[in-house]
Amino acid sequence: MRNIAPGVKYVKKPFNPVNYKLYDKLGRDKLEEYLVAKGHKVLHNQEDYNVDLITMRDGFTYFNEVEIKLAWSGDWPTNWAEIRIPSRKKRLVEMYKNDKGALNFYIFSKDMDRVWRIKDTLMTEDRIRVAKGRNIYKGESFFHIPYQEAELIYL
Questions:
Q1: Rounded Cα–Cα distance for residues 51 and 103 (Å)
Q2: DSSP sequence for 37-69
């Protein structure tokens, strides 16, 4: 384990090659479809272990990271007060913070009919905490983003 923020330990969930194969390209392609429909030009949609998709619109660059939340289908459960993004994504926030552009995190529902957009400015160290849950690896930390601060997009 290594420190990611004062008092918070970084525990990484083991890589799941099955879920990666099933969902990575699906998420990237769905986000590309949505962004192109919104007037974005795709500059990059190749796996390179950095952001999933780089787009441009009106001369402005967007760095986009995508995940599919398999536990979420239908309406967002009102008892889920937060959207959780693995703290390992802090590396992307740091990587792109000095680039001219915006970093957005998109969290799709399992049925791919809605998506949360979370701005990088919401991804602050004070929001990193260890989380517990049946699908969370013991000790894994996440950015805890109140869902009211994110943008819910219906596709």
A1: 9
A2: HTT-EEEE-S-SSS-SEEEEETTEEEEEEEEEE
* Pairing, β 114-119 against β 53-57: unpaired
The pTM assigned to this predicted structure is 0.88
**Domain residue spans of the chain:** 2-154
Smallest Cα–Cα separation from 83: which of 153, 11, 6, 9?
A: 153
3-state secondary structure at position 128: strand
The CATH number assigned to the domain with range 2-154 reads 3.40.1350.10
The whole-number pLDDT of residue 56 equals: 97
Q: Which residues pair with 53 in a beta bridge?
A: 64
Beta strand 53-57 with 41-44 is antiparallel
